[in-house]
Amino acid sequence: MTDPANVLPLPTPNAESQAFWDACTDGRLTFARCTACDAVQFPPQKSCTACGGETGEASEASGQGTVFTFTINHRAPGPAFAERAPYVIALIDLAEGPRLMMNVINCAPEDVTIGMPVRICFEPRGDMALPQAEPA
Ligand SMILES: [Zn+2]
Fold it and tell me: Structure pTM?
């Protein structure tokens, strides 16, 4: 039996986030906008976190973004991450406004810079796919 510490963690979708994670698995990053105040809701949810109003249908993000800030993690938090270290944990500003925490992959950690243009890519993990960033 595989020790859970040796397996990269997966999100646990709930009733509200299942559609978001299904979209990620299909290679689409989605968000919603409040129909009352226009605030972006990421991940999509039924009620606006700014005003409590209703949000519209989820839209697909362009996938374009920039690195707001980042750190390079040299110490794996567990055995599952050992092969990844060192790796980049970054805050990515999406073109649509949301700021997301994700890894910057498909480049050397030392090549990541603040303000660097990135695009969203999807890392297969288990039977899901997680949104990550890569150099644009
Ligand atoms: Zn609102």
Answer: 0.88
